[in-house]
């Protein structure tokens, strides 16, 4: 036989270090209360963010929870991260809460959520019509948020006991 086959040894992958994330970043996590039936709302926000930001967002995750939770957070590489590094090893991360229903009152308007994501991942990006009527922070005008409760087939509100 004229040719020899040389086998390449694959090195075993290193286990992730505790406290570090190995998934692609930036990552948006939408934590929602399953008892309040907010999964469709969370999925809608996820679809809107993915449609708007495309490949600028590496991942949007839906995370079921209880207790009236609706929190949108973003995880990004820490400020010491250099994008030109091609290392696939775990990097230090920073997680920022973009919206918390209990703190911010109700649910975000889609435009506002897009602005908050943009301000973290692409601060110079113009969002077109989303930015046109944007009120600058501190101009004395506040946006009203309306909270709604799910309605069952019987027409009665279905309230989660943990949300009270």
From TrEMBL:
SUPFAM superfamilies assigned to the protein according to its UniProt record, in alphabetical order: Thioredoxin-like
Organism: Sarocladium strictum
Protein name listed in UniProt: Uncharacterized protein
Keywords, alphabetical: Redox-active center
Chain intervals for the UniProt region annotation (Disordered): 1-21, 117-164
Compositional bias of kind Basic and acidic residues: 1-12, 117-139, 155-164
Pfam families the UniProt entry points to: Rdx
The organism's place on the tree of life at top rank: Eukaryota
Lineage of source species: Eukaryota, Fungi, Dikarya, Ascomycota, Pezizomycotina
